[in-house]
Amino acid sequence: MKLTEEHALLRKTVHTFIDREINPHVEQWEEAECFPAHELFPKLGRQGLLGVNKPVEFGGMDLDFSYAMVVAEALGRCHCGGVPLAIGVQTDMCTPVLARYGSDQLKREFLAPSISGEMVGCIGVSEPDAGSDVAGIRTAARKDGDDYIVSGTKMWITNGMQADWMCCLANTGDGPPHRNKSLIVVPLSGPGVERQKIRKLGMWSSDTAQIFLDDVRVPQSHRIGEEGMGFFLQMLQFQEERLWGAANAVGAFDMVLKDTIEYTRTRRAFGKAILDNQWVHYKLAGLMTEVEALRHLVYGAVEQMLDGTNVTKLASMAKLKAGLLSRELADTCLQFWGGMGYSWESKVSRALRDGRLASIGAGPDEIMMGIICKLEGILPSRSKE
Fold it and tell me: Is 0.85 topped by the overall pTM?
């Protein structure tokens, strides 16, 4: 993936926006365990940052996916992980299949206001008894005339307390579990919807909810794509979500390393700067190398995606590497900060808490390893039967 002057200008726009509209408020939002999405998203929308690779006719820029990844990486400049995650859900997790497979009416009603920031979206896949096992979800949408009646519970829903609509994966038939599901746009303001906030170890500024759907009536015209294709479409959507997560992690890693170098350069012990210890600067050099390797893995996957190649393996590798490196990098850097790093208010402490989600959300490390093994044909023999 070759970065052009246009990519650089877009990155600068994101950085300027963050410095002006996000970072000055992060401490307040972290304390409140929520940021005002309905205030921030319209500002992002006016900058065009919620629809970089979405169709022009619905308010997007119609740029290619590489520009979306530049935005994801640039969002790593934020002083927390929660706000970038919420933005990523809006841009690259609940809207990709809507933009690609939704009807024009559905796009006008939900995609266009999501690109402008007037509406906040969320993705509803995980459930209390079905997280990694997507095929095992229980939420069902039964037909009643021209409507679906949707019932079930969705769990770990980012933006869930503020979202206006959900891209909801639900069982719409009795067939095989990979062919009986559909993605349905479910408005969350009507009767039958209840929300309960979930408190988390990290990502505090991003609100997370358990959402209960009790006989929620939705027009069948709210289905995205053909009935029964929901599992397949969500797997496609996962690829963009996983690449977004890896790209965003790269940007966040850059900031943690920068802050750590600055701190260890000024912090002195035994007559010299912490950074002057060979163990410290060698470890930081190694971590920089790991981050650069991840960056190029992401860029390579994006380039292949733009060429029309299936990037399931590379996206899974990037997601896996981002999760593993998140723990190693944050923990190592925190050690170099000493007691200051262990304090709740430090940036590196927040990076450790926020980054832990990278090995869980959008498919845990173990699922990524399983995908890679399956695609490489190295599963145990009993798994091939």
Answer: yes
